[in-house]
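Researcher: Quick one. two chains, 1479 residues in total.
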Amino acid sequence: MLSTLGGGGGKPAKPSFVSYVTPEEINQTEKECSRKEKHPDLLPGEVIFCSAGPVLKSIKDDLFQRVVYGTLLCTNFRVSFISDEAPSDEEAAQLFKNKLYGENDIPLTCVDHIYGGFDDKKKLIISGFVKNKYPSKIIVCCKDLRLFHFSLAYAKEEDAKKIFQGIVYHCLEPKSLKCVFAFSYGEKTLLNKENQTKPKTVMFDTSEDWAQEIKRTKGNCKLISNNADFSISAKLPQFFIVPTHVTQEDLTKFDGKGIPIWCWSHHSGCALFKTASLPLMQEDASSQLYKSYMEGMLNAVAQTHLYSVKTEELSDSLPTVQDIQQSYSKFKQFFLLDNTNDFWMTDVKWFSSLEGSCWLDIIRQCLAKAVEVVECLEKENTNVLIMEEEGSDLCCVISSLVQLMFDPYYRTLGGFQSLIQKEWVMGGHRFLDRCNHLHLKDKEQSQAPVFLLFLESVWQLQQQYPPAFQFSETYLTVLSDSIDVSVFSTFLFNSPHHMASIAKAMLEPGQRSPVNWPTVWDWSVQFDSRAQDFFINPLYMERSRQDKAPRKMPRPKHQRHQSLPSSAFKFSPSAKKGFLKDETDSLKKMLRVKRLSRWMNSPDSAQASTREFFVAWQRRPLDYHGLLLPCLEGPTLRLWSQRYLRWIPEAQIFGGGSITILKKLADLLAEVQDLRGNLDRQACRADFNHQGVVARAKSSIQLSSAFPFTMPRSRSFKPAIPIGPLHSLITDSLADQEDEENLGIV
Amino acid sequence: MLTGPKSFFKARQRVPDVKDRMLSHGSSDVGDKGTLGLRLLPGEHILQKAVLVRKKLPCREGGGWLAGTLFCTPFRVAFVPQDDLKRDEDTDPILLEDHDVALACVEKVVAVGPSRMKVMTPTSTLKFVPEELLLYCRDFQVHGFLFDRLTPEAQAMEITCAIAKVYQPLQPGALLTFLNAAFGSVEMRQRLSNRPRDATMCWFDIASDWETELERTGATGWRVSSINHRFEMAASLPRLNVVPQKVLDTQLKNTFAHFNEGRIPRWCWHHPSGSDLLRMASFKNNIYCERDNVRNLEALVFGSGQQCVVVELAEEMPTLADLQQGHARLRALCLADESAAVTVPDEKWLSSLESTRWLDHVRCCLRKATEAVCLLNDGLQTLILQEAEDRDMNCVVSSLVQVMCDPYCRTLAGFQGLVQKEWVVAGHRFLSRANYHRDREKEEAPVFLLFLDCVWQLWAQFPSRFQLTPEYLLAVHDSAHLPLFSSFLSNCELERRRRSKFLQLLPQCYTPVNGLGKGLPLTAWHALPDPPLPPVWDWALQYSSARRSRFTQPMTRPDPPPPLVNGSLNTVKTTEEAPASVFLFSRGTFTSPSNLLPWREGGGTGLSKRSLRRDPPSESPLAPDWLLKAWTLAENPGSGTLIPQLLAPCVGLWKDCYFRGVLQVQAFRHPEATSSHPVDQLAREVQQLMEELALASAVGARGLGQVGLEPSSTRMPTAALPSMPPYTTWTSL
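Model:
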């Protein structure tokens, strides 16, 4: 092993790569390890494009910059660095290991930015063709916030040029969907039918799934199944559910726009719908058409329950997709710092810069909006129709959050996966465009981490009520990473139609069988079963058996409402819920009036009523299997530290963090089991053997707050940095010599 | 004393059912029918009361409200819930029941009317019938009382005015009135003086406590000197000080003059690696030094070590003014005072928090302590914390170091001993820093609260390594705002003794050598009728046993024994032949300035000017973590040292403390979530099972067979935690 104890502290101003190894040494080592070509364990369908060596990777995980020699490869799946060192035992025994890509691998779609290091300057690389000089150093920022430094200075110039171009080309240049690794992977692997997802995930790709879902929530809407060939709309899933009063001809009118798609039914009978909104505000010929259509749809929604409906145009009150992208790209920069100095610079102004990014505020707004919708459903038993231009971005966020807050089923692992399947995958969230894995220039505008925003919101909920969620923080982190691994069909397409048409096109040339893309829910593709255990939250309170019996939902009586003539809309003097048929002369006006009355015009009163609703909810005893509402005050929203701080060695708490609570839990549980065993033995045998009480050998492993992503490593070498004055005076360490050089004494 | 006949008379005019209830309550309380279940302290009397008042409960206590009666006495505002069944008459009344507020703790009284609110002062008059009474307290709590339609209007108004009149806005003399109200009566004095003091903890006012501490930590070469027995040498120092064995008392005598206020280097703690932690005040430079004396001074400074590192605490630490300002801002932010109408929008919360700079101060202290821990861990050296007066930051840092390194200091008894040793006895100016008399604005600073916050940070990062709980820290925090305890009502041990009955035991009270007078408001104290003040550690006086039981949490495993002194370090020791060397550690670098020890002319050992750290001073912010990291990696992970992570994202706000007042933000933890944390459940179960096992084995040993032992029937079910696959695998890692 060649390691250089450079001074991260000594020369912090220079970002990295100060080699203290002379060129002669390099040559020697090169000879030694030359032609020791190593290949990574290639995945099925993986092809190596180019490779170069020796390449140095600098490891920053302690403050001594360690340098490792190895080979840099670029395949059709990943950029991979293969170290010349034999993997140490710890690494081999690493518990939480991804089977698809390792510690030193970067899936191509996971690459966020590439910087080139020219001498001391750092430049963002946009294309592979550089005019003058190829950079001697590559810095790769990943979407999962890892940071890699590779130095090409010792590779042959051709190799270096080739690998640089290769990496840049495959990571950053526009490409076609067919080039994504999932296609070659899918061809070569056989879908393991037995390996169906362990916690049963409902895929919502059959009409039975939907029928089951509507039965479960006791909704009274109808299932539409004649979109199986996408004849109604390419934007809608093959099966979906609409209010009973939507007629067949309504469905085919505007290419799926404006159709209220059922999301979830509240136990009172009212339901949540979402739709892609029609351009109502334009004054042109078609607008009148739209208005009357929309009015009909609202009618239909209203008739689902109690003739009341509330609409919510999400784009009016929530940030746009571009805002989200902008905010996130600002936010993530705080965690992609490539040297300690920068870290300390941001540290001083940490809170205000965090606030400046607005990312937490966007999360707050989403959660707040979801609480408002929950209030309508729970308190007022009003149907709610949320709309948005495409009906597949913030609609998905809000509707999934609402369901998560209401329904304990979605807080189980299987339920959560089903929810994502239902609202996001089948709901037609444009994963491909939002991630922009293909680096298409015209799609750059539509890139936005909307799904991540949802996961962040779920994390906030989860950390406020840990016993209510069956899945753990680690699960959410892994899921957020999986978005950028281009193997899974779940996150690869823009809509079910997109997926179906691609699959069909693949099939046409007369291939043997349809392509097998694994879904992300098949976790065995990525993790072995022991690692999958980390997805379970040990604090989860399972519903005890007597609770499991179906509870009778108290259906609130609405005597007054029911006495109204059924054909008319409810005439409410409060005008809060009211939806009057008489007012249908101008739908636009009506929509606006309605919206204004509740959502817009009097934000104070709306906020106050939401506040009141929240306080009322809070007064009731907390039921982890009932409705959960998040606290949204400034101090309660926190940074998802596991996701964002896990790779930053400076921010790891050794032997501390919340993980120790869980570990303590495990210890206690083991102790309880021990003691119980002892007691039982006692009860059986009257003669007590004192040897029986054996102190359990406690594990001495120290976990850090970044567990399980990075383990604290015990280094074999001692730091050569003088901690106490005495040491440094006696031992003539490397550091000391350098010190003298710096001072010019020698 | 009269038990308010006036108010009793009033009570009779009330609606019948209330009267009945009142009478039924009163009948259980023999002899004092007017108290409605309020248990008065001896000598306490009711000034005013209001019936059918509802107290707003903060969310952590379950939310909602509680109906009952509100009282105002000269000592407290008491609230007795209507159906308070749990009280047991046998126990001594505790000073403040769960719902009571000490008057001295109230900072502001606000009456909320139908359309307006008014801040009440002793002189103000009330022109409207209040609907709600808000009491803002110094300890970040806000108590809200709602007056009902059924509450007689006159009562609502009168009690508001009464509270406004008797609550003590801080001013000279107010404290005395309050103390008299609390402890003035003969009976109360007797009761207090008869209370035994906690024998399980060290109080550090007798020599044996210090000797125990020396033995416990394994320090050698030190002795307990009683040279300051009569506070002649240094008025602010304790009577007993630990000094090197080789310095005799006669030699010691001459050294006091070389230090500010006579606070010579004294031993605090011994690190398992062999280093000793000392603390001292700054040197007096203008004192001429005899040659003999130099030797004594050197011996004092170097202790048993070969080299000495002086950690200067003045430079990088926040000043008192910074602290005071930070704390005031934090208060304003967290309380979000309704009457002041300062509310921070949620999206501006983080930057407002940053601008208080309180967390920076907390980090700063922890960082300094971490540096000190790193240095101590190096072994075989003497580490001296130096501060100009040795009475503020020295207390913070030296006690933090011990909390971080010494598992014993994370237990209840150990922590109390630590505070006793490093704060109370060592002469932290509790009285001046609290500024109860409102006469020294400049000296007011929440130094002790800063320390508690630091400890909480450590707790938050290493929750499973503490025996004490945040609940306990909160109790200490609140008590520090309550001017009732001898621990917090004096500036040093001498003052404490003057006030207590021990004063007479001192044969003669000399005027101390260097000006005691200026620190002591002598007149005020002499005028005191001298009620014996209880120490703060007598928790039974303040808290019900139910709350006290939450002060500790069971430890799953005892911390591993401290690592033995590394043998290799001894080789280092032998090679060092040079005269003892002294370094100054400041801003993350070692230097050896020539004037570090004023009696050494011409400076150190020839190594001066040579920076051992390679950082230029301008990059100092890097240094501590650099050190820290190096140390962490080199360190055997098994040792029980807590090294906190100090990056901004890792430092939190002590929400359970600072947010108790804000009614909107109280919902951090849902009431049920706190009570049934699975870790607590399991820990209790472990204890229960252990007891059962002990019982069973005792029964078995006596050969009685299984007499009625049915473990399964008494077991608590391991509810809600049926499966824990991942975490059982960890234990086998």
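Residues 207-318+357-506+530-549 of chain B form one domain.
Researcher: Thanks, that's what I needed.
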